[in-house]
Design a protein that fits this description.
The protein has five helices and nine strands. It has helices at 2-15, 110-122, 142-156, 176-198, 213-225, and strands at 39-51, 59-76, 100-101, 105-106, 130-135, 161-166, 204-210, 236-242, 260-264. Helix 4 (176-198) packs across helix 5 (213-225). The longest helix has 23 residues, at 176-198.
Length: 265
């Protein structure tokens, strides 16, 4: 059962939460021969991060006023252990042993992004034509967020289309206040991403938010509720709030209107 697999995956996630991972070198140089036995996942991305000058990071921890839409391919090695993100201790990434990431494709507009998602959905059986939206937490770089959603999707056996909303966390423990402000700044763009995804052909949506990502999620949903269109097509099903970094009194705010909510403290 998907919910049971997600709960088990979160038990592992808590052990490694809010940790900044580095992908390593050479993520754009994936050789088919090396990838034998590896599993590839396409991760769609909506981000409020500015572009990075570091080609290995793709997006930085600085804020952009705009929502950038992209996708990135990530491979999981055949020796993968559930809950782990295998990465090199030093040197270059070896896709046969480590998670490896291809350079992202950045879309020129929301329609191109939506067309690509619909094409991806159409390749799946009807029961798997779902979208999982993942909102990461505090102290998470873009690379860490991409690797974490890939590990989560792989370990839970999710067969639909994964979408990462990556707000501008700097990925540094000392930048907690900066991250709070980035989370609040990102809420409008999460609403914008939700509007785009609502135009997709997805059968249903599940949403997973971790740590400070719950602040982004709650604030975005609060805005949608005020327009009287929260889940008006009844496609939002499972909402999971993992270790939510928000006031207890606000946690149940958006529960009404979706099929199931799990609060994991």
């Amino acid at each position: 059962m998907l919910i049971a697999r997600i709960l088990a995956c979160f038990a592992l996630l808590f052990l490694t939460a809010c940790t900044n991972f580095v992908i390593g070198e050479g993520q754009g140089l994936l050789d088919d021969a090396v990838l034998k036995g590896a599993t590839k996942h396409r991760i769609y991305v909506g981000t409020t991060r500015a572009f990075s000058e570091d080609p290995e990071e793709f997006f930085s921890g600085e804020r952009s006023k705009n929502l950038t839409l992209a996708h990135v391919d990530v491979t999981v090695p055949p020796n993968h252990e559930p809950g782990e993100i295998e990465k090199p201790k030093s040197g270059k990434t070896n896709p046969s042993k480590h998670f490896a990431v291809n350079d992202p494709i950045v879309f020129n507009n929301s329609q191109s992004f939506l067309d690509d998602i619909n094409s991806d959905l159409a390749k799946r059986g009807v029961k798997d034509q779902d979208i999982l939206v993942f909102v990461h937490g505090y102290n998470v770089s873009f690379s860490a967020a991409v690797l974490r959603i890939t590990q989560f999707v792989h370990d839970t056996g999710f067969e639909g289309v994964p979408v990462l909303f990556s707000w501008a966390s700097r990925g540094k423990t000392a930048d907690y206040v900066y991250d709070i402000n980035s989370a609040l700044q990102g809420r409008d763009n999460l609403v914008a991403l939700a509007d785009i995804l609502n135009r997709s052909n997805a059968r249903g949506f599940d949403l997973v938010a971790h740590s400070m990502g719950n602040l982004v999620t709650i604030e975005a949903m609060r805005q949608i509720v005020t327009t009287n269109r929260f889940n008006d097509d009844n496609r939002l099903r499972l909402v999971m709030m993992a270790s939510p970094d928000i006031d207890l009194v606000n946690r149940p705010l958006f529960v009404g209107g979706c099929h199931s909510t799990r609060l994991l403290i």
